[in-house]
């Protein structure tokens, strides 16, 4: 098995960084696993192809949006048809009515919906709705969970060591970037995740002050970490009891965990939920869904491209494809093959390797085998340096995994042959790192 040559990517990066900040469109892209990012020419199905002609089995999938794979015929045809009619009107369309109706049929919490363009935007809007509806301003969020990159959202999203997080019963509020206002965290209460009793005690300690609890229902950004049995329902019961709005950030889990998101998968219905990424299979689009009385409390969403016709067409086509029989069964089958192969590699190399999946979201980690309880537990157990070395080497042999987090995505176009090839690369890399 020969390593890929990526000299053209290196040359392009040196040229690009002269005129483009960081040399990339988003800093996420620079976390390719070497001294420079790989420049891609195109994607097809489950594969990406770089400027040196190399083919990659891709489990990053644009950091989640490409649920149906690259160049899905139905989605791209719908977009081309819409482009033929016009790309932007600043006016509603009949398709917008169809999409809103379809989402209210699919998503358990969705009595009505509102459209935006990105994960950051939908979370900002959901928080504003919760505050307007309750007349309160404090929000509970959880360590290691990412809800966007606005000043308030980018608080305590990561850490390198457990010690950085502070005491468990009074966690630090971590600011992550220069230029971020220190006051961004004033209305936030940060807690460890997966501890319903701590949520209860915190709400009771701040009577009449807490507008919302926001969480990833499956902790995907760092870990990822699954909710303990009964945890989501316990938080649902606590927030309902105290008149606190429960927000599920389903930007990642939406349509990936199930057609109804994680709330559909676990059978726990929040008051509001946010969606982006996979909702339109790679076209920029986002939505907030929730109870009518909260959604219509007087906070009107405004944005030039909200509900734009191209994103609407892509979202309608994506939902239609995901609604076909066998799609989610396909994810279960592939994940089962993946897990079985990983188990054999763990035995072969005497390594603790963790693998779980929910829908099309897979979790791959080193250093432990049992479910971590929260971000602190994961941070203390996970062999992050080994995972990073593993990911860098896998990319050199044509398999792309996500950096650090261990969150890998399946698309509807991944095949059993992709899994077999991936496991062969993993075998090669684990042998080299042994």
From TrEMBL:
An example Gene Ontology molecular-function term: transaminase activity
Keywords: Aminotransferase, Pyridoxal phosphate, Transferase
Claim: Oxidoreductase is one of the keywords in the record: no
The keyword Acyltransferase is assigned to this record: no
Gene3D superfamilies noted in UniProt: Aspartate Aminotransferase, domain 1, Type I PLP-dependent aspartate aminotransferase-like (Major domain)
Domain of life: Bacteria
Cofactor(s) annotated in UniProt: pyridoxal 5'-phosphate
Family: Belongs to the class-III pyridoxal-phosphate-dependent aminotransferase family.
Name assigned to this protein: Aspartate aminotransferase family protein
Top-level taxonomy: Bacteria, Bacillati, Bacillota, Clostridia, Eubacteriales
């Amino acid at each position: 098995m020969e390593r890929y040559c990526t000299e053209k990517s290196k040359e392009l990066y040196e040229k690009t960084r002269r005129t483009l900040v960081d040399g990339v469109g988003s800093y996420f892209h620079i976390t390719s696993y070497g001294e420079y990012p790989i420049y891609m020419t195109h994607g097809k199905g489950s594969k990406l192809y770089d400027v040196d002609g190399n083919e990659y089995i891709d489990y990053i999938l644009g950091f989640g949006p490409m649920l149906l794979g690259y160049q899905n015929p139905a989605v791209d045809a719908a977009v081309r048809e819409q482009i033929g009619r016009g790309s932007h009107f600043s006016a509603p369309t009949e398709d917008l009515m169809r999409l809103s109706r379809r989402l209210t049929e699919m998503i358990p919490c969705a009595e009505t919906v509102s459209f935006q363009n990105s994960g950051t935007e939908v979370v900002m809007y959901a928080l504003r709705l919760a505050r307007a509806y309750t007349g309160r301003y404090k929000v509970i969020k959880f360590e290691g969970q990412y809800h966007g990159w606005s000043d308030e959202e980018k608080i305590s999203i990561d850490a390198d060591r457990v010690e950085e997080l502070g005491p468990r019963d009074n966690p630090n509020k971590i600011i992550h970037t220069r230029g971020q206002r220190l006051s961004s965290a004033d209305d936030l209460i940060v807690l460890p995740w997966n501890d319903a009793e701590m949520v209860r005690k915190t709400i009771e300690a701040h009577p009449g002050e807490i507008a919302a609890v926001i969480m990833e229902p499956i902790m995907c950004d760092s870990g990822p970490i699954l909710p303990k049995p009964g945890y989501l329902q316990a938080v649902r019961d606590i927030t309902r009891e105290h008149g606190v709005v429960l927000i599920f950030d389903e930007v990642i889990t939406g349509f990936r965990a199930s057609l109804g998101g994680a709330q559909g998968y676990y059978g726990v219905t929040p008051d509001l939920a946010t969606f982006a990424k996979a909702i339109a299979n790679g076209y920029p689009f986002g939505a907030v869904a929730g109870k009518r009385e909260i959604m219509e409390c007087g906070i009107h969403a405004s944005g030039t491209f909200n509900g734009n016709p191209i994103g609407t067409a892509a979202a309608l086509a994506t939902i239609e494809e995901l609604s076909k029989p066998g799609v989610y069964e396909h994810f279960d089958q592939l994940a089962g093959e993946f897990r079985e192969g990983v188990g054999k590699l763990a035995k072969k190399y005497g390594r603790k390797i963790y693998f779980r999946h929910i829908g099309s979201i897979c979790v791959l980690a080193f250093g432990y085998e049992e479910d971590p309880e929260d971000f602190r537990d994961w941070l203390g157990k996970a062999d992050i340096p080994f995972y990073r070395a593993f990911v860098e080497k896998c990319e050199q042999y044509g398999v792309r995994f996500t950096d650090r987090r261990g969150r890998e995505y399946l698309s509807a176009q991944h095949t059993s042959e992709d899994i077999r090839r991936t496991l062969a690369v993993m075998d090669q890399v684990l042998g080299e790192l042994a």
